[in-house]
Amino acid sequence: MRRLLVPLMALAVLAVAAGTALAFCGFYVAKADTKLFNQASQVVLVRDADRTVLTMANDFKGNPKEFAIVIPVPTFLQKEQIHIAEQALLDHLDAYSAPRLAEYFDANPCQRVFEERVMAVPQAAGVVGGTAADRAKSLGVTIEAQYTVGEYDILILSAKESSGLETWLIESGYRIPPGASRVLGTYLKQGMRFFVAKVNLKEQSKLGFTYLRPIQVAYESPKFMLPIRLGMVNANGPQELFIYALTRKGRVETTNYRTVRLPSDAEVPLFVKDEFGGFYKSMFSQQVKRQDMRTVFLEYAWDMAWCDPCSADPLSADELRQLGVFWLERGGDNPPGAQNVFLSRLHLRYDSEHFPEDLVFQETADRQNFQGRFILRHPWTGNDRCEEARTYRRELPKRQEQQAQTLASLTGWDVNKIRGKMNLKASSSGSEGDEPWWKKIWN
User: Fold this and answer.
1) Are 127 and 145 in contact (CB under 8 A)?
2) DSSP per residue, 27-91
3) How far is it, in rounded angstroms, from Cα 443 to Cα 405?
4) Number of helices (H) and strands (E), helices first, in the chain?
5) What is the mean pLDDT of residues 279-285?
């Protein structure tokens, strides 16, 4: 069955038909079919003052008629505040901001000229009728609005008690996981409403899409947060979440959890070029262990007008507006470099034990550039015999050993196996890796 790309904010996926198995497909940071993370979601947060545009995307494997989401929202949403986006926008944003390899080639030490190449990361039923509304009212549930937007039927719900809301959802065909009522109740106490969406198969067929597109909502609220607890109720183990925050001033960080920079600018052995997906997955898991799981990792922070190096072009002004960057002016030629937009890419692995609270954010004035970047340095292999070349050859094995140690520390991999892949012993001829001593006599 073809993989379905389905919008989801890592909050809740509910089956419309009882007994249906739900599964999440992976989030890909690598090209081709290299799957890095299972149960992964992507969210774009555009934020300025109290205004937020939220884009939610996720992979869902199964029949689209079995898909539904329930998302807590801080305010009532009119139909005009709901939009359907294109997955290509998130794919571009992912490619632009994903951790990457920078590949360097050592120049002839007798000439001291360097050349750089940049390598991109292996890439990151019908509307409810009147009878149902009457039943909802009897349970203390109010259907405040119902819309069809794109391929989705959408309800905006409020409720007096979580038990009544849970009962209404179950009676309406939504399979609610055990424990959902308690989490629903915490959102009701905050005065939040619920955005419920499921697929309108007729509209989907009419539009001609074979996958489900990301959902966008725009609203005003002083709360700069992302509700994640509801999605952990029926989660099968930890989940991955990638957040792309687009703001005017600067970097975004969490206020109720630690925000830590991903390791960066470390030199790693050359064979990592062919194993970057596995390297990145192991490296991230190792950082989660070291920092404790209660950590949000910053993978990228940069002004959208430029990048150095670039693994993909910056998003155009038109693409950014489609993601909800409402302060950009319309018109003009939409140059690739958009102005006054700062991107923060955050990555977390979360479960209910380590993330008992929803994510709360703040925008800072920090515009310092940062990217998760790992470096490959190809040795110079020329035959020049100046003193600098001799020194270079003598120091090269030490550098390669340090790369092996660095890789072992970043990933937890066995350093002896790393050395074997690097052929360190084979490259260490003569005294400390220099050419044989007797050649120095007459050369």
Assistant:
1) no
2) B-SSSTT---BSSEEEEEEEEETTEEEEEEEEEEES-GGG-EEEEEESS---GGGEEE--HHHHH
3) 35
4) 10, 22
5) 93
DSSP code for 402:
H
Name residue, tokens 């989401």.
69
Residue 43 burial class via C-beta count within 10 angstroms: exposed 0-12, middle 13-18, buried 19 and up: buried
Q: What is the pLDDT of residue 232?
A: 77
Q: Which residue do the tokens 């970097």 mark?
A: 251
Number of Cβ within 10 Å of residue 426's Cβ equals: 7
Which residues, 6+ apart, have CB-to-CB distance to 110 below 8 Å? 384, 386, 388, 389
pLDDT for residue 154 is more than 70: yes
**Ramachandran quadrant class, 16 (left: phi over 0; alpha: psi -120 to 50; beta: rest):** alpha
CB 53 within 8 A of CB 220: no
**pLDDT surpasses 60 at 39:** yes
Lowest mean pLDDT among 39-43, 149-153, 371-375: 39-43
- Matching residue, tokens 């404790």: 292
